[in-house]
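COURSE: Structural Biology Practicum
ASSIGNMENT: Worksheet 4, Part C
STUDENT ID: 0417
INSTRUCTIONS: Below are two proteins. For each, the amino acid sequence is given first, followed by its structure token string. Answer the questions at the end about the second protein only.

PROTEIN I
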Amino acid sequence: MSRFDNIDCMIGMAEYEDNHFDLAMVDPVYMNGFNTGMWVDVLGENKDYKNKTQTIEVKTTPDYFVELFRVSKNQIVFGGNYFQLPISRGWIVWDKDNSENNFSDCELAWTSFDVILRKYRYRWHGMLQEKMGRYKEERIHPTQKPTALYKWLLAKYAKDGDLILDTHVGSASSLIACEDMGFNYVAFEIDKDYYDAAQKRLKQFRSQLKLQL
């Protein structure tokens, strides 16, 4: 049975015993004092998530990682290069295939796996996305990642029957990937606006799935 709650992940994780989760796929805040307003000028688009009036002060502290490593057997941490994490050779590179624009060409994820470095290429910005709709997904969160990326992660790093943890759900791309591939999960999102938007996106996915069946 899966669970998705609008609570602080530190409160949520405290409910679980050691090594309860097989795999944590997380995208924690990369900077202290995260302010949603900063994304307006960076992305320069008219999206609902940039019109938020509520700003939640969020900090990713060392205590977060202590708790994350306590409750999960393995971890994939997006933005791992921003944190002081143990040495790992199993890094993941998401090549965004951006062409010429102001966005980063790649994003890095630290993993606890003792495996070779892997790269996944998936275009997330640019004319191809807008004109062809080939990779297009509704954007509801400033650090949203494509569902296809999470499905690739599950295929590469999870085993059948694994229980997945996501501490910072955001857009629910990870949860859609889990449901599409048959994984149960526990997930948390502290921001009520993003939580509601993620729940709406999950509902739309489930409705489309029923229509396909």
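PROTEIN II
(use this one for the questions)
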Amino acid sequence: MLDVGCGSGRIAENVLDHGAAAYVGVDFSEPMLDLARERLERFESRVELVCGDFRQVPLDGTFEVVIGLGLFDYLPDAEPFARRMRELCSGSVIASFPGWNWFKGPIRKVRYEVVNKVPIFEYTEDGVRRMFLDSGFAGVDFVRPGRSGFIARARV
């Protein structure tokens, strides 16, 4: 499994506890990877953590599952990430996407962009479908977990 934007390893811990044979996490933040190293220490050789820009870091082989959860919220240009995910994926990509709604949208914009000075981006299902299909995936399915966004599964 490959986790793009793995952060502190919260997701890694769960998937490794539930039987993933191997896990590779990529993040551009060394402090976040330090937290992940601590959290995932007990999994030893099943874990590889890579610091750098996902679009450029060298990764060997392909991965049956590639995840990008909480990643696309912060990407001003998501297509290069989707293309690189396709290059490295032999099965499915699972990714989360924020969606606009009138209740949470304005609060989220103020919290992230005004207070924290971090730009965030919203997505539509049509835009996500187009992005993944243009990146070479064969199909895209959607799950709507709530009012604030959705999960997409892109299949090779």
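ANSWER KEY EXCERPT:
Q1: Helices lie at 10-17, 30-40, 79-88, 104-115, 125-134.
Q2: Residues 2-155 form a domain with the Rossmann fold fold (CATH 3.40.50.150).
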